[in-house]
Design goal:
The structure holds two protein chains of two kinds. By secondary structure, chain A is of the alpha+beta class. Chain A has six domains: about 130 residues, HPT domain (Four Helix Bundle (Hemerythrin (Met), subunit A), Up-down Bundle); about 170 residues, Globin-like (Orthogonal Bundle), CATH 1.10.490.10; about 55 residues, Helix Hairpins; about 140 residues, 2-Layer Sandwich (Heat Shock Protein 90), CATH 3.30.565; about 140 residues, OB fold (Dihydrolipoamide Acetyltransferase, E2P), CATH 2.40.50.180; about 140 residues, OB fold (Dihydrolipoamide Acetyltransferase, E2P), CATH 2.40.50.180. In chain A, about 45% of the residues lie in helices and about 20% in strands. By secondary structure, chain B is mainly beta. Chain B contains three helices and eleven strands. In chain B, the strands form two sheets. Chain B has a six-stranded mixed sheet with strand order 8-1-2-11-10-9. In chain B, strands 3-6-7-5-4 form a five-stranded mixed sheet. The chains are: A alpha+beta, B mainly beta.
Chain lengths: ~900, ~150
């Protein structure tokens, strides 16, 4: 790669880009064979590739492109209609071209793969079934050996002195040309050794020697040089060198004249002027003079336009009908190619500039000089704009990846005999380049999976009463500083039963696990390493890259992937990715005298509890602090405790930063909340990677370093979310979406004893308390405690249900306080397990005797406690002066 | 013919240590360090080195020595390692010395604890011993969970 000449690498870059477009165009064309503009675009792409590679001497590539072009021209002229076979062969051709290009890229040669079958097939198709005249024949007709004149003494070739003389002449000629300041620039990047050999072969042929010249036409060979400014003047300079070469070799003047005439006759063709068919040497004077008068630039333009003289008229008429595409070059001038490294460097510099700006802004706070302040403001604004601008240069539309998909889907669908319609929405959605690249493979994999495993065969679909043509829908959109990508198919969906069997057979889960897991959890098993659901592995998907890799790769760039599937209806994969990684808005907080940054992405809201309110608003479940945020329990995490710092909060108020980690929310209690600021994310050293609570570090306005907190890592560290919790969390979301109408209840789940599970609606619970055993006093038969200035009777659930408590020896006991009309009763339980939100459907089962029935909470059978029933039974006086309350469960 | 080596020397407590000068990027005075909760004790925190965030290692603790008294502000020896640039906090900077391999000897196994693991060898100078730090090992910490 190092020694690759710039012209070749540019050719490669351009060709790759063109090929991507080509794939898309061809697939579109197949769907809309009447779309002329598509044909024009395809034709032009192939044509460009052919022209350039001809000049660069990639003959194999050229020959393939050539037949492709012929085939396309027939299509364009309406001589042939687009068929499946033609589309296939054209796509195969694109692949072949790509293959050769990658060969050129890796070892500068076209490789030794034989494409003659493809060429034959295309030639066959082109003739509408009749074999084409041989390619070589065509060329030799064009190049009627002009030297084979009726001169005495045989051909000019022989008279010049045969092969040796021609070879020697070419060598000297090239040396001269390369030394000629007027023209040598055209050979800067060219493999002259190769050209020499070609030239020898050509001249041998042109002068009437034996050799059969099998290369390209002169026009094609020099087209790129013409595009680079090769004009009549340069041609004349070459001719001069040619003449002097022959003179040096002591060739008789008359023969020089004859040879020069032949060479001159190629002038038109080389410069792309006139008709190729007329190869007879025309009088030199008439040819050259009008040319010299022409403005060089204009001539070049003409030459470019008319270079394919054979199809010239047809093409012109054709191009005229697509006026806007005609001057592709004009539009290109509005954009330039920029090295990605350069953009990365710019991005880094802007990052530094943002930091410097932050520092200056901070200094300004203590300054009074109005001019200085206004300058700072100006700097501030400019930096913001610059940052935005540089970020934009790195933004790329989603279409850059999606453009590949029509081809991928088409090939795959053909391969599995399926019919798939691909719809895409939001192609223009932009995303940072590094992110675009990072999601390319995962997305391709998901799309492949959808077609290969998701969408059913047409027969199967018809049998199910679906449209035989499956639908794959891609959608991308911005949402809250993130890009969401959805991949939706209306295929068979994922059957949890199959996944289950498979996972068990692969030892990923046990039978017990399987029985316990919800469908949702089971579907998520496809993200487990070592899982592949395909009943048979096709050659297009199932290439060893599992969904686990997809998930890992997406999570690596701070994204997430979620799957929803319904058997028989289809599957939706939702991928969420941050817009950019380098500069992010963050909230600055203090804790233990240190500053921390929290990425705004994970921030939900801020809650401040004033002193009095604060103390009573925070409740404890088994020592775990929770806060009721608009009726939902929010687990609290104290940052100072997690980081092992002393709290230095200087007031009694409590600052809660509500964070989103995965699908769970939790409150992070910090000492102080400062401000939001744009921060530049700097990675932490490798030694610190193990600390998941940090996402990185940044440099603050005062030049000090601050750590960036990772909401996810903190949540895991504080056990707000566990692996199981994550799944449950996800499940909750789905359930919520699925049963929006269904009534949900927040339940307090506890164990009365014997490790059994019971639940009561949280709405019936006044408080949760922890009493020490020695607080228990006796009043008659009953156990009571003094609570808030009253005597509260206790009911021990393990006694009510005749269970053995594991906690009787403990010093403390867990009490659920139930209040009604100003009176309270304490229900003693073994253990508070959790607070969950569930759709409660009570199944008749173990009802009666203090129970309302059973339900399933967190995948486990849980009895619903009949609170009022139990109280009435244990303490008949409790309800004495009240109406009996109907249980709310 | 023994090859002479240039060593950047510094002091920890009363001991003299050296690092191959080619591994040292720069040396600078004490700079404010941002504490890094949850990190191992030997990691002092993070330093802003001209816009780059680098990890500072308390070399005394790392080598199993007594912690420095608070009033001594440590110096930073910035070392290029495989895992990026790191700063070693030392008591005092010494000279850059040219030493001959003739005076070199492997570290004796009787050196106690962490120190034996983290030094490669000793130069026997006239007036003192110069201990050579194995920077690769110094920056490697046991995997720790946070």
């Amino acid at each position: 790669m190092d020694d690759m000449s710039p012209i070749i690498s540019e050719f490669l870059t351009e060709s790759y880009e063109n090929l991507d477009q080509l794939d898309q165009d061809l697939v579109d064309l197949e769907a809309n064979p009447e779309e002329k503009s598509l044909l024009a675009s395809i034709f032009r792409t192939i044509h460009t590739i052919k022209g350039t590679c001809g000049f660069l001497g990639f003959t194999k590539l050229e020959s393939i492109a050539h037949v492709g072009e012929n085939l396309l021209s027939k299509l364009r002229d309406g001589e042939l209609a687009m068929t499946q076979d033609i589309a296939n062969s054209l796509l195969t051709m694109v692949d072949a071209v790509r293959e050769i290009l990658s060969n050129i890229e890796s070892d500068r040669s076209e490789g030794d793969i034989d494409y003659s079958d493809l060429v034959e097939l295309m030639t066959y198709l082109q003739s509408g079934g009749n074999p084409e005249p041989d390619e070589e024949m065509e060329i030799s007709e064009t190049f009627a050996p002009v030297g084979q004149s009726n001169q005495p003494g045989g051909t000019l070739f022989e008279r010049l002195g045969g092969q040796q003389a021609v070879d020697a002449a070419v060598d000297i000629f090239y040396d001269k040309v390369l030394a000629d300041g007027r023209i040598k620039e055209f050979f800067n990047d060219v493999d002259t050794e190769r050209l020499r050999n070609k030239q020898k072969a050509f001249l041998t042929f042109a002068f009437g020697g034996d050799s059969r010249y099998t290369g390209k036409t002169l026009g094609e060979a020099h087209r790129s040089l013409v595009a680079r400014g090769l004009s009549g003047q340069h041609f004349d300079a070459v001719m001069e060198n040619f003449g002097s070469t022959l003179r040096e070799l002591k060739v008789p003047e008359n023969l020089i004249k004859e040879a020069s005439d032949i060479a001159l006759s190629t002038r038109n063709e080389i410069l792309g002027q006139g008709k190729v068919e007329s190869m007879e040497p025309a009088p030199v004077v008439e040819e050259t003079s009008p040319m010299k008068d022409l403005d060089t630039a204009e001539m070049e333009l003409r030459a470019m336009e008319e270079r394919r003289t054979g199809d010239q008229e047809a093409e012109e008429a054709f191009l005229a009908s697509n006026e806007d595409r005609r001057f592709g070059g004009d539009r290109r001038s509005e954009s330039i190619r920029v090295d990605v490294d350069l953009l990365d460097r710019l991005m880094n510099l802007v990052g530094e500039l943002v930091l410097a700006r932050n520092q200056i802004v901070q200094f300004t706070a203590t300054e009074r000089d109005a001019a200085f302040i206004s300058t700072t403001q100006h700097l501030n604004q400019l930096t913001a704009e610059l940052q935005e601008g540089v970020m934009k240069t790195r933004m790329q539309p989603m279409g850059n990846i999606w453009n590949k998909f029509p081809r991928v889907v088409r090939d795959l669908a053909k391969n599995c005999n399926k019919k798939v319609r691909l719809d895409m929405e939001g192609k223009e959605t932009e995303l940072d380049k590094t992110l675009i690249e990072a999601i390319k493979d995962p997305l391709t994999h998901i799309v492949r999976n959808s077609v290969d495993h998701g969408i059913e065969s047409p027969d199967e679909r018809a049998a199910k009463g679906k449209n035989p043509e499956g639908r794959l829908f891609l959608r991308a959109y911005h949402e809250g500083g993130q890009v969401n990508i959805e991949i939706v198919d209306d295929g068979g969906g994922i059957d949890p039963a199959k996944i289950k069997t498979k996972a068990i057979s692969k030892n990923l889960i046990t039978h017990q696990d399987a029985a316990r897991m919800s469908d949702r959890e089971i579907i998520n098993l496809i993200f487990t390493p070592g899982f592949s659901t395909a009943e048979k592995v096709s050659n297009l998907s199932g290439r060893g890259v599992g969904m686990d890799v997809v998930k890992t790769n997406i999570e690596k760039i701070g994204g997430s992937v979620d799957i929803h599937s319904r058997v028989g209806e289809g599957t939706t994969l939702k991928v969420k990715i941050p817009l950019t990684l380098a500069i992010i808005p963050a909230l600055l907080v203090t804790c233990g005298g240190l500053r921390y940054a929290i990425p705004q992405v994970s921030l939900v809201e801020l809650v401040r509890l004033e002193s009095e309110e604060g103390k009573s608003a925070i409740e404890y479940i088994q020592g775990a602090p929770v806060y009721r945020l608009r009726g939902n329990l929010l687990p609290l995490v104290y940052l100072n405790k997690e980081l092992g710092l002393e709290s230095r909060a200087n007031s009694d108020s409590i600052n809660i930063v509500v964070l989103q980690a995965d699908s769970r929310q939790f409150g992070l209690v910090v000492d102080g909340i400062n401000d939001t600021e744009e921060i530049v994310v700097k990675p932490l050293g490798k030694q610190l990677k193990g600390i998941t609570a940090y996402a990185g570090a940044t440099i603050m306005g005062d030049g000090k370093v601050a750590l960036i907190l990772d909401a996810m890592g903190l949540a895991q560290k504080a056990h707000v979310i566990t692996e199981e919790g994550r799944e449950l969390g996800r499940k909750e979301i789905v359930d919520r979406e699925m049963d929006k109408a269904a009534e949900r209840q927040t339940l307090l789940v506890f164990s009365p004893g014997n490790e059994t599970r019971m639940a009561v609606p949280l709405s019936m619970v006044a408080r949760l308390e922890e009493f020490s055993r020695n607080m228990v006093e006796r009043s008659g038969e009953k156990e009571v405690v003094q609570y808030r200035g009253e005597i509260m009777p206790l009911i021990n659930l393990s006694d009510v249900f005749g269970m053995s408590s594991y906690r009787k020896e403990d010093d403390t006991m867990q009490v659920i306080v139930y209040s009604d009309q100003g009176r309270s009763v304490g229900v003693v339980v073994d253990k508070i397990i959790d607070i969950v939100e569930e759709v409660v459907t009570i199944k008749k089962g173990s009802h009666g005797h203090g129970l309302l029935g059973s339900t399933v909470v967190q995948e486990k059978v849980t009895d619903m406690l009949d609170v009022t029933g139990v109280i009435r039974q244990a303490d008949p006086e409790f309800y004495e002066n009240q109406l009996a309350m109907a249980p709310q469960g | 013919m023994a090859m002479d080596k240039q060593l950047c020397t510094f002091y920890l407590d009363k001991y003299c240590f050296g690092i191959d000068v080619r591994e040292v990027q720069e040396v600078f005075r004490y700079q404010e360090i941002t504490r890094l909760p949850l990190a191992p004790n030997e990691i002092s925190g993070l330093i802003n080195l001209r816009g780059q965030v680098i990890t500072a290692i308390n070399l005394r603790l790392r080598l199993g020595m007594e912690p420095r008294e608070d009033e001594i502000a440590p110096m930073n020896v910035v070392v290029r390692t495989q895992d990026g640039v790191m700063s070693f906090l030392v008591d005092q900077i010494g000279d850059v010395m040219e030493v001959s391999d003739d005076y070199y000897e492997e570290a004796p196994d009787t050196i106690p604890g962490a120190l034996r693991e983290l030094i490669t060898g000793v130069y026997k100078l006239e007036d003192r011993l110069l201990l050579i730090i194995d920077t690769k090992k110094v920056v490697q910490f046991e995997a720790f969970a946070a």
